[in-house]
Amino acid sequence: MHSPQPVFQLRDDEVEITAIRAQGAGGQNVNKVSNAVHLRFDIRASSLPEAIKTRLLKFRDQRISADGVVVIKAQQFRSLERNSFAALARLHELIAQAAFVPQLRRATKPTRGSQKRRVDSKVLRGKQKALRGRVGDA
């Protein structure tokens, strides 16, 4: 059972989006138009709760630099606007992973009844196997 997604709000001034030229094939247009996006988000300077910041900084993710800045490059689409939305979506997904805390499993002991049933079934199985063997050997 999943707990409801935690609600966190990012302010617009915390996310810095810069238009850059996309890499790869694209013909002559690729050299003229800046459609790719670099998104930068400083974890330490953000308004996120401290617990989420701490978990984000502990992530072993190549998008998070040593000084705690998330850098996401989006160049999947040919539109600057769609690449911006894609980069923001990936940032939200990363923060949501850090915000999710799995419920800890509490160790329990088997009941006395279940232990007795287990031992009884083992004894029964042993008796059944003891009856197997060559006929006439006695």
- Stretches with pLDDT under 50, minimum 5 residues: none
CATH topology of the domain at 12-99: Double Stranded RNA Binding Domain
Mean pLDDT, all residues? 81
Q: What is the CATH domain class of the domain at 12-99?
A: Alpha Beta
Helix and strand composition category: alpha+beta
Overall shape: it is elongated
Distance between the first and last residues' Cα: 59 Å
- N-to-C SSE string, H for helix and E for strand: EEHEHH
Order of strands across the widest beta sheet?
A: 1-2-3
Number of DSSP strands? 3
Number of helices: 3
Helix fraction, binned, reads 25-40%
Q: What would you say the CATH architecture of the domain at 12-99 is?
A: 2-Layer Sandwich
Task: Characterise the protein shown here.
The protein has a domain at 12-99: Double Stranded RNA Binding Domain. Strands 1-2-3 form a 3-stranded antiparallel β-sheet, with helices on one face. The protein has helices spanning 50-58, 80-99, 112-130, and strands spanning 15-20, 36-42, 69-74. Helix 1 (50-58) crosses helix 2 (80-99). With 138 residues, it is an alpha+beta fold. The model has no long low-confidence stretch (mean pLDDT 81). 12% of the residues are buried. It contains 3 helices and 3 strands; from the N terminus they run E-E-H-E-H-H. The chain is elongated, with a radius of gyration of 29 Å.
